[in-house]
Specification:
With 124 residues, the chain is an all-beta fold. It has no helices and eleven strands. Strands 2, 4, 5, 6, 9, 10 and 11 form a seven-stranded mixed beta sheet that branches. The chain has a four-stranded antiparallel beta sheet with strand order 1-3-8-7, with no helix packed on it. The radius of gyration is 13 Å and the shape is globular. It starts with a strand and ends with a strand.
């Protein structure tokens, strides 16, 4: 059974950093895109970043220059390095994976597998 497990969330002050990790099991995702989405209380789930199976990163405009997505195919993991955090980044962050290697990478409807999420809280 496919499982995605996030870790690394926590409480950090404005301007701080966090490193989120997503460990996948049940299937190798080396030939698939991987992504991060976030959801704040009372808000819809939003795209944060994605990385193609070739390693090409894509980011939401709000996180460009601050977040970096990377993957380690040997470990079947994806990492989101979050720097210069802002209070508006506060949300539950979810790791996601699709069924295929190509598609609407910034649309949550494309992704089939989801982790349980990890809470990120940025205080001012």
């Amino acid at each position: 059974q496919v499982q995605l497990v996030e870790s690394g969330g926590g409480l950090v002050q404005t301007g701080g950093s966090l490193r989120l990790s997503c460990a996948a099991s049940g299937r190798t995702f080396s030939n698939y895109a991987m992504a991060w989405f976030c959801q704040a209380p009372g808000k819809e789930r939003e795209f944060v970043a994605a990385i193609s199976w070739l390693g090409s990163p894509r980011y939401a405009d709000s996180v460009k220059g601050r977040f970096t997505i990377s993957r380690d195919n040997a470990k079947n993991t994806v990492v989101l390095q979050m720097n210069s955090l802002k209070p508006e980044d506060t949300a539950v962050y979810y790791c996601a994976a699709p069924e295929g290697p190509y598609g609407r990478w910034n649309q949550d409807s494309w992704y089939t597998y989801w982790g349980q999420g990890t809470q990120v809280t940025v205080s001012s």
